[in-house]
Amino acid sequence: MDALRLRSMRWVAVAAPTAFVALLAYAAYFRIPSLLSVEIAFALTIGATAVGAFLFSRAVFSQIGKREDTILHRSRELAALNRLIQVINSTLDLQTAFEAFVAEARELLPLDRASLGILDEAAQALRMLAASGLMAQQIGRGRLVPMKDNARVADAIARRQTNLVGDLEREQTSPMDARLAQEGIRAAMVVPIVAQAQVIGVLNLGARRANAYTAEHVALAEQLAAQFATAVVNARLYDQEQERARQLATLNEVSSRLMAILQVDELLQAVVTSVCQGFGFYRTSIGLLDGDAVLVKACACEDCDPCPEVGGRIALSDLTEIPTRRPMPTSELALPLRSDSQVIGVMTVRRKDETTFDANEAATLQSLANQVSVALEKAQLHEQVLRESITDGLTGLYNHRYLDTFIQKELAACARYRHGLALLMLDIDHFKQYNDAHGHPAGDAVLQQVGRILLKNVRGADLVARYGGEEFTVVLPETELEGALAAAEKIRAAVEAFPFPLGRLTASLGVATCASGITDTDLIERADRALYAAKNAGRNRVKADQEV
């Protein structure tokens, strides 16, 4: 029965008895002679009956009206729930679903503030996803609100029941209550969002008027929250699948790139850069075990260039554990790099926010770390083979083969850019007698030590090579004669001052510099002539080819 029909019937039921009673009163007042006593009595009886019918009909229609209001209110609630369900089924965006919830909730219950938080059990906090009304600006998306700051949220989650407070000015149990009261919120309701018998989040509702929420409001809010739980579950599943797909795509991309890189430093930098960009991390670094420490070899981060961690050493107290500089926060994950079940390094990834790493993410990243370990072994093996092909097996210095290539490259640069180039040739004085007297092992130890002395006394851009026997060569790029003579004298003095176990040793050095049209063979021959001039002059001295 619609509202218009009910109102029409109500007016008829009231108007008819009223008109009849008025007629009787008129007749009695004017003493109409045509009416007999019996007729008057009958009319009064009919009037009384009409009055009774009137009173009865009014009571009936009052109940019908109340029932009508209840039906209309329930219809509004069902319509709101239906609209909310339609929004939930049509979107995977929690912000859109939340805005729909707020719009519907405001039509049905007092609402000046609302927020949605998802439970982060590992962090014992709520991760805020959306807010409306008061404090909307203060609650940023992704912000963590610890449980200890909101006792009502913790209570609602623990009991899985709505927590209702009538007046926050009188009933404050946590810092959050005080902040809400300062914002003008008097009544508050925390409604748990439950999915599959687990609390996954909460809706926080607030009103400016004290005791604004009734039991009916609580029941309605719980119905709305039950519908909203579907939106939260669907959005989380969608986000997880999207993130999983993105991570797997990044994993495949990085893995395919790794196999093509054969230089360790280039490999590690490519890994940290790709992981940072592909997974959206704030910082990624890789360190390799180096004795009793971890040496940070590569790093990529969102707001630093270059990354300050590269080249740093992290001391270890126990090499059997994954090395970390400090206790890791929940937003940081350390992944071991292993070779034959031995930890050879660690890859560390960090998020800018406090989002925890779940088991699926950890498994994906560990799979990537395993791929990095394989690629690292391959690159290290390649570098080892390459190093062995261009270095001397005894001293570890570059060999004659690589020396020729390096000199040719530097001579080309010398001719093009017109800068200096010098070459030093060193020979250990009386080395044959030393070798005959003390044996070849002692002689080999001397050669190794002289190699270390040379490396210690040259620049990083200089090249040190073992030329053959007891002869060594040092190439000094961008160096003129004066600088080359100073470098040679520094090396000579270092050899003479070194306390060799079986007695004092000295060295003679020849110096040659780049000239127009000179070849690598010419440069070496000129340095060699200067060396023999130093030996013929008494040894333990430096000679330049200009002096020959």
Structural account:
The chain has 548 residues and is of the alpha+beta class. The radius of gyration is 46 Å and the shape is rod-shaped. A 6-stranded antiparallel sheet has the order 3-2-1-6-5-4. It has helices at 3-30, 37-90, 94-108, 151-159, 175-182, 215-258, 264-279, 359-390, 400-417, 431-438, 440-456, 481-497, 520-536, and strands spanning 113-120, 125-133, 144-146, 163-165, 187-195, 198-207, 283-290, 293-301, 313-315, 332-339, 342-350, 421-428, 463-468, 471-477, 507-513, 542-544. α1 packs antiparallel against α2. The relative contact order is 0.05. Residues 318-329 have low confidence and may be disordered. The chain has 4 domains: 3-69; 91-240, GAF domain (Beta-Lactamase), CATH 3.30.450; 259-382, GAF domain (Beta-Lactamase); 400-547, Alpha-Beta Plaits (2-Layer Sandwich).
Counting DSSP E segments of at least 2 residues, the number of strands comes to 16
Q: First CA to last CA: what distance?
A: 125 Å
Largest sheet: 6 strands, antiparallel
Helix vs. strand class? alpha+beta
Shape: rod-shaped
Under CATH, the homologous superfamily of the largest domain reads: GAF domain
CATH fold-level topology of the largest domain: Beta-Lactamase
Alpha-carbon Rg, integer: 46 Å
**Mean pLDDT score:** 78
Helix percent reads 40-55%
Which architecture of the largest domain per CATH? 2-Layer Sandwich
CATH class term of the largest domain: Alpha Beta
Beta-strand proportion: 15-25%
Domain module count: 4
Strand order of the largest sheet: 3-2-1-6-5-4
